[in-house]
Amino acid sequence: MDSQSLTYFVAVARLGSVTAAANSLHITQPAVSKKIAQLEHSLGAALFRRMHTGMALTASGATLFSISTSVLEALRRGEALMRSKHGQSSFVIACPPTTADLVIAPYMADLNPPVVDLRLTEAPDINHAIERDADLGVSSMRPPNDRASLCVADIPITVQRPGSWGDANPVDLDSLHDQWLIVPRTGVQPAVRERLSTPSRSWLMRDAATGTVAQALAAAGHGWALVTEPARFGLQSAPAHAAGQPLQISLYASWDRNHYAAPQLEELAVQLRGHIQDHVPWQAPHPRT
User: Fold this and answer.
1) How far apart are CA 53 and CA 221, in angstroms?
2) In the structure, what pLDDT confidence band is assigned to residue 189 with cuts at 50, 70 and 90?
3) How much is the pLDDT for 84?
4) Do residues 196 and 179 touch, judged by C-beta distance below 8 A?
5) Which residue has the higher pLDDT, 211 or 82?
6) For residues 217 and 209, is the Cβ–Cβ distance under 8 A?
């Protein structure tokens, strides 16, 4: 076995197709097939079941997959560690797609930090990404206590709906108690539920996977979106208040306290916080799509 063989094998296992794996690796399909065949021959075991619908792991393949992901991640971290000893650290940041688009990508373009790639994952899965192959996580979900973390921004929650409002005065959610509120399963959800948790009143509330999905549902007339994303889909936006106070959530950067480059990751988080303060990305206009 070698790292290239394991890389090809993991790609096929994750994507379930030689063609998809080849496309993701930017190589030819025969090259992937040949490498998988050589790996199976050297191990003396079939790693995949070839089916009309794609490639499925055998029991032997599942065992190798669990080993391979750990080996490849150890190699990546080892390479990063050696680079760091020569002042060439490069890190992987895990974050939701919207955070990548509005916050992390502009930060990378403006300041050229030691970031080599992003892992796009939804906010509730950030901690799993850090455990797997990410060095730093950035999301609106509060990190567990065993992780080092830094609040890099406080983000206002807005109320969004179609049509013209005439102004952008704050909207108190008390005025919407008989309307459907669409709340994404991000840090917005616990913040909203905590502020609206009163025994004397029930709320019409539905979940959405992301802020963008909440916006799409609001644009289609299913209710009022409570989100942090800039307005899109023709929606109008106003600050959300509850009991006369503005609603907001925190954006956290978090990392493993025992990471080999923990001090550098903290510096990265501090730098990111400064960039956000200078640019306030969620106030930027978003093109209608």
Assistant:
1) 38
2) confident
3) 52
4) no
5) 211
6) no
- Residue range 236-266, pLDDT digits in tens: 888 888 878 888 888 999 998 888 788 889 9
- Asked whether 181 and 206 are in contact (CB, 8 A), the reply is yes
Could you say which DSSP state residue 222 is in?
Answer: S
Q: What are phi and psi of 206, to 5 degrees?
A: -130, 150
- Which token pair is 5? 């063989």
Question: How many C-beta atoms surround the C-beta of residue 203 within 10 A?
Answer: 17
Supply the DSSP string of 89-147, one letter for each residue. Answer: --EEEEE-HHHIIIIIHHHHHHH--SEEEEEE--GGGHHHHHHHT-SEEEESSPPPTTE
Tell me the Cα Rg of the chain: 23
At residue 225's C-alpha, the angle toward residues 251 and 178, to 5°, is 125
Provide the pLDDT confidence category of residue 287 given band limits of 50, 70 and 90.
Answer: very low
Judge contact between 146 and 257, C-beta under 8 A. yes
Run of H or E residues at 254: strand 248-256
Residue with tokens 């050229």: 112
pLDDT of 107 higher than 50 = yes
β-bridge mates for residue 51, sequence order: 54
Query: Mapping DSSP to helix (H, G, I), strand (E, B) and coil, where does residue 212 land?
Result: helix
The burial of 194, by beta-carbon neighbours within 10 Å (0-12 exposed, 13-18 middle, 19 or more buried), is given as: exposed
